[in-house]
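A favour between colleagues. Tell me how you read the following sequence-structure pair.

===
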Amino acid sequence: MLLEVSGLEVRYGGIRAVKGIEFAIAAGELVCLIGANGAGKSSTLRAICGLTPVYAGGVRYGGADIAATPVYERPRRGLVMVPEGRGIFPQLSVEENLAMGAFSRDDADVASDLERQYQSFPRLKERRTQTAGTLSGGEQQMLAIGRALMARPKLLLLDEPSMGLAPLLVAKIFEIVREIAAQGVTILLVEQNARLALEIAHRGYVMESGTIGLAGEAQRLLADPRVREAYLGEGAA
């Protein structure tokens, strides 16, 4: 398994945001983590990346315990996150933001990878010298994803990529996520739009109040009456 989470617990003071969850992701999988606001999804991603302290349990990546691995070192090992809210550098240009994604690399392929992002995101190429903070929400999300891809991730963590976007842009972002997965990048997708997430994922986990309530093949979860009623806006059959 590329990622193994065992007994993971995250606390904020006396509040247990994540309560001892366990799951694993194999290389090449696209796995989604769905659930309501406050279920612990983003806290789980932040703990995997080292941005939030792990109170108990552990995270293994590539077969190794990464508890002692500094946050800045994890992208060098291929563990990269696109945070909720995009997290771009608003005062830098589009191209400078993309270059920041390759800060941990010293190989000769950075320039070719930059051109690859422009091929994948033609709108970013049109705006390569534009200040990133002046982009639309959809363009900023494309930029955040392109910046992450500049690190050549083995495991890409996506936190709410559709948040705040118009329906047409949401469809475009999910198309991009599907294409990235087809290129062999392993993806853990946290998303409130449960239907779209499950439609493109191989497997899914449903988080409820800091625990995993349901897990299984994505298509099976799509058909589960509990998921349909709670997350898809449909009445139980």
Remarks:
- DSSP finds nine helices and ten strands in the chain.
- The mean pLDDT is 94.
- Strands lie at 3-12, 15-25, 30-35, 56-61, 64-65, 79-82, 155-159, 186-190, 203-208, 211-217.
